[in-house]
């Protein structure tokens, strides 16, 4: 009977609820991207407000503290993925799904509130609340992916789960647009004068960055009720809890499936095993350990590259911006956000769209391997052309184009497939736990990549042994290219390639 219900879900045509679920499930990922990208212009505003100018240039947040602000959210994400991944399998997806969004909303709001108006208070409270924001976002990863995969049909499951993840692209775009609008409003309203640039921006700037962060909570608030109203996934109810009657009711609550279809679907020639075993058992390691390791390593490699290149943005296009000492704080933040919006529209969202269109045709393994390879080649080209395209603080347009290509293929390939695969490869009673473990491995890679980038951006020496911050960027690109080549090899040998059209229950043993 359990197989009958699952087969009915697998064969169900695409319906309105599938698209509604993309928005509901994707809102946590939307907020994740909003938080990650909005913090870039925000830290520039905070630097000007709370830190004194040096050598005729506006104040900036020290590198170590900028790294702490980024790392605090990533550490929280690791905790959230492991904790809520476990709880999603232990007590159910629905019961903890609203909790993760509530944590995201409260933490995002408090990030903007950030107790105190001195540098130490602001940075400390920002790190504190961003840690809990990361916990909520981390919990949202496995739950959103698995909920969508368990409601999806077999034919378009990859595209539906990728659609959830693509909400990150819109979070990036909206964060940039919000920052631009807020900065422009405050720029117009602020008094003009000599002190508009140095030494400090007007007091209103302290309000501007808080508003930018707080606005990110609004979309999540609007989807909170919808999350609470979602039923438990029929697959979890049937396979993990063994309640067939309730699973049939839950399937009919959201999908147009006739009751006769649920009870008369032809059952394939295999059954769901009734014996139980734990995630730390030898049987689990023998049956699923290789796939868990493959997903975890792929995600780790991807996030080392993805988060490094994300934080690389403010350096890669700084040559196209006016020197910070010549513009106001609002103008500098506006220009940074503008470039983020351009990259979102030209590279990030198209990359996600390409993944949605190809993932169920070419397959997860093919687009992951292909994209890792193209990323490696493009990064290597950036290394080889570094000296000719990056001269005297000027970066050639072709260099920006290559940088955009890295983002496009990251989102078209491994950044999406690493989210999709763990939601397909494991039994229902382990699914969110395994997804959380793989995601946590990825965020450990993100911590390494982002902290390493911050460190390298402040080190380096010229031919005369004079310290030149940022001169190590060429070597960062070499390292990232090497990581992508490792990703190609790892994907070829270890990533499963048979998930296209595979019922989730094929791995239910």
UniProtKB/TrEMBL annotation:
One of its GO terms (cellular component) is membrane. InterPro entries: MFS_dom, MFS_sugar_transport-like, MFS_trans_sf, Sugar_transporter_CS. GO terms for molecular function: symporter activity. GO terms for biological process: phosphate ion transport. Residues 21-499 form the Major facilitator superfamily (MFS) profile domain. The chain crosses the membrane at residues 16-44, 64-84, 96-115, 121-139, 160-187, 207-225, 292-316, 369-388, 400-421, 433-455, 475-494. Keywords: Membrane, Phosphate transport, Symport, Transmembrane, Transmembrane helix, Transport. It is found in: Membrane. It comes from the Eukaryota. Pfam families: Sugar_tr. It is a multi-pass membrane protein. Belongs to the major facilitator superfamily. Phosphate:H(+) symporter (TC 2.A.1.9) family. This is H(+)/Pi cotransporter. It comes from Rhynchospora pubera.
């Amino acid at each position: 009977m359990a197989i009958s219900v699952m087969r009915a879900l697998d064969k169900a045509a695409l319906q309105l609820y599938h698209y509604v679920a993309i928005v509901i499930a994707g809102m946590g990922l939307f907020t994740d991207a909003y938080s990650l990208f909005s913090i870039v212009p925000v830290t520039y505003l905070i630097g000007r407000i709370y830190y004194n100018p040096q050598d005729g240039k506006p104040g900036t947040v020290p590198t170590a503290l900028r790294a702490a602000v980024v790392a605090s959210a990533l550490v929280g994400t690791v905790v959230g993925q492991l904790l809520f991944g476990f709880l999603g399998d232990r007590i159910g997806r629905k019961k903890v799904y609203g909790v993760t969004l509530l944590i995201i909303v409260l933490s995002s709001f408090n990030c903007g509130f950030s107790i105190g108006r001195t540098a130490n208070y602001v940075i400390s409270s920002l790190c504190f609340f961003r840690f809990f924001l990361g916990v909520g976002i981390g919990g949202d990863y496995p739950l959103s992916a698995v909920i969508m995969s368990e409601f999806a049909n077999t034919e378009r499951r990859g595209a539906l789960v990728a659609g959830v993840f693509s909400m990150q692209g819109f979070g990036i775009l909206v964060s940039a647009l919000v920052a631009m609008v807020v900065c422009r409003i405050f720029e117009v309203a602020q008094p003009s004068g000599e002190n508009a640039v140095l030494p400090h921006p007007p007091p209103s700037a302290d309000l501007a960055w808080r508003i930018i962060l707080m606005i990110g909570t609004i979309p999540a608030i609007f989807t909170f009720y919808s999350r609470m109203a979602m039923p438990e996934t029929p697959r979890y109810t049937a396979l993990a809890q063994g309640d067939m009657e309730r699973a049939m009711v839950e399937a009919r609550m959201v999908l147009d499936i006739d009751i006769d279809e649920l009870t008369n679907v032809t059952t394939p020639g295999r059954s769901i095993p009734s014996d139980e075993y734990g995630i730390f058992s030898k049987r689990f390691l023998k049956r699923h350990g290789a796939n868990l390791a493959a997903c975890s390593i792929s995600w780790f490699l991807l996030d080392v590259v993805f988060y490094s290149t994300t934080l690389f943005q403010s350096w890669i296009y700084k040559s196209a911006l006016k020197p910070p000492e010549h513009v106001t704080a609002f103008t500098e933040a506006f220009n940074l956000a503008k470039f983020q919006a351009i990259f979102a529209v030209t590279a990030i969202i198209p990359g996600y769209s390409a993944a949605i269109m190809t993932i169920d045709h070419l397959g997860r393994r093919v687009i992951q391997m292909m994209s890792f390879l193209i990323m490696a080649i493009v990064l290597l080209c950036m290394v080889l052309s570094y000296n000719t395209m990056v001269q005297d603080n000027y970066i050639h347009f072709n260099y920006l184009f290559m940088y955009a290509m890295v983002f496009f293929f990251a989102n078209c390939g491994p950044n999406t497939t690493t989210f999709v695969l763990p939601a397909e490869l494991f039994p229902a009673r382990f699914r969110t736990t395994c997804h959380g473990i793989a995601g946590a491995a990825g965020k450990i890679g993100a911590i390494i990549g982002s902290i390493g980038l911050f460190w390298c951006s402040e080190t380096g020496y010229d031919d005369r042994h004079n310290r030149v911050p940022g001169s190590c960027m060429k070597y960062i690109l070499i390292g990232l290219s090497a990581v992508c080549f490792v990703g190609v090899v790892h994907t070829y040998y270890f990533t499963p390639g048979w998930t296209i059209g595979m019922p989730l229950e094929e791995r239910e043993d």
